[in-house]
Specification:
Layout: E1 15-19, E2 25-30, H1 31-40, E3 44-49, E4 56-60, H2 62-79, E5 85-91, H3 96-111, E6 115-121, H4 130-144, H5 167-182
Length: 191
Amino acid sequence: MRSFIRANYRIRAPRVRCVDQNGNMIGILDTREAMKLASQAGLDLVEISPNADPPVCRIMDFGKYKYQESQKEKEARRHQQAMVVKETKFHATIADHDFMTKVGHIREFLTKGYRVKIVLTFRGRENAHKDVGFEVVNRVIRTALPASTTSPCREPSAAKAKNTVSRKRLRRNKSRLSASSRVKRSRPTRC
């Protein structure tokens, strides 16, 4: 349902294509004439298609229309399933038994219909060898998901990743160091 539906005096167009309560086309009328027809029938003039030229308006009970639209939305939300995402964490240096245990959990999640998110975290010096970590993720994909659809492996952003430093930050720190090293500090002389 649109967030705002124009009805009666809120319709801005000077002329509208009018449809009666039975769905029969009346024709293109001035907005005031269409509102008179609606008020004579004891109903409202509701703008159905505002982007058409001229806008399409229908003579109907506006309260009933809003109620029916809200019921349609509620029914659509009821039939819509929330997708559950399960997360499994891996490290670059994972033992084979731990690896197979986690792959077993991933297979179990997939058979139950869940989505699985594989998270790869690096600790300490593992940051220098990220290719080893991404090989672990590719190995998980090869062993656990032979026929499933996967999204490609990507590097995390520097803001979200642990133990990563962006190049801009390094350059900025280098420029600070070089600027501070240029300033000669006078040391107190010893007597």
